[in-house]
Amino acid sequence: MDYNFDELIPRRGTNSYKWDSAPGGDVIPMWVADMDFRTAPPVVDALRRRVEHGVFGYVKVPEAYYDAVAGWFGRRHVWRIEREWILYTSGVVPAVSVVVKALCEPGDKVILQTPVYNCFFSSVRNNGCEVLENPLMNNGGRYTMDYDDLERKAADPKARLLVLCNPHNPVGRVWTAEELERLNDICLRHGVRVLSDEIHCELVYQGHRYTPFAAVSDACLGNAIVANSPSKSFNTAGLQIANIISSDAETRARIDRAININEVCDVNPFGVEGLMAAYNEGEGWLDALCDYLWGNYTELCRFFADRLPRLRVTPLEGTYLVWVDCRSLGMTSDELTDRLAAEARVMVNSGTMYGSPGEGFIRINIACPRSRMMEGLGRIASVLG
């Protein structure tokens, strides 16, 4: 089936956070991590059927939901998930918060591999815990883990948890099984649990393969708590559905208690229906989406090489978020994003949102029709070129 990812779908005036937060009607938003594409047709059809029923009371999550989750990861990623391992909640950010609450006490330390998704910081601090940074190493534009530093940070007697981003937002790495196993070996030596945010797991490109952290080995499975959702892959973040997966019954009981303490135990019927449709019927659409996004990235790289050669585009292995090194311009990230918003009328993310190692970088969302992306890049070049 052919899917039209080139269609320009108006989103301004729909109460879109991405579009309607922009000042004025001429701004191109290339910041918030949602896509400007309609979701997979089977998801739309499932939601339409639910709307036509007309009654939107509290939902009882059916067994078919768990079958859909387990079936998807079994088929697509060779990861066997037992039904009892799955706890549902309203989103991956709430999932991160409840796992921190469940496994840490106020004053404990949580390891983050910076630069990293900004909500990790607030999830840690809002639970009275301290962020312990294990900065990634930038090796000529490709990021790797600093295992020596991780060994030191994990040895801190107050370190209880590491929050992993797999694939990584914003640097675009898809961690290999070998990298994940080495990380887990260090964490196990020091009694540090691993919470792996795998929300971008389906958005992986040529020559790379997503490995669920819990599927690397039995040791990883026993030490893992995995948070995932179809929301990034299928552009359904507003449906508010996610899963926390743990093979350990005691850990699940503690997390389940934290879910109820945080009052994120109820989900909406649209999220349930959307997930089942995406996982049961959406694979063809998703594969076509990834091909289109890779085409966008390829065009972006050509554009930067031609028009903005002073800026370095980080290799993109996964996600639709491009991490760009702008340090050659001699401006801070905030100065740069402010200038692009004011002069180019393009909104991108400042690298400092993701921790101090992000200074001098910007993050660009390329999940939009190619013509819109090229217009946005052209505006950026008119100011920075």
What's the layout of helices and strands?
Blueprint: H1 17-20, E1 28-29, H2 41-53, H3 63-77, E2 86-89, H4 92-103, E3 109-112, H5 119-125, E4 130-133, E5 137-139, E6 142-144, H6 147-154, E7 159-165, H7 177-189, E8 193-197, H8 218-223, E9 224-228, H9 231-234, E10 242-245, H10 249-261, H11 269-281, H12 283-307, E11 312-313, E12 321-325, H13 333-344, E13 346-347, E14 349-350, E15 361-365, H14 370-384
Parallel strand pairs: 1-13, 3-4, 3-7, 7-8, 8-9
Antiparallel strand pairs: 2-10, 5-6, 9-10, 11-12, 12-15, 14-15
Helix pairs in contact: 2-11, 3-11, 4-5, 4-10, 6-7, 12-14, 13-14
Determine Rg (CA atoms, Å).
20 Å
The structural domain count equals 2
CATH topology of the largest domain: Aspartate Aminotransferase, domain 2
First-last Cα distance: 40 Å
**CATH first level of the largest domain:** Alpha Beta
Low-pLDDT windows of residues: none
Shape: globular
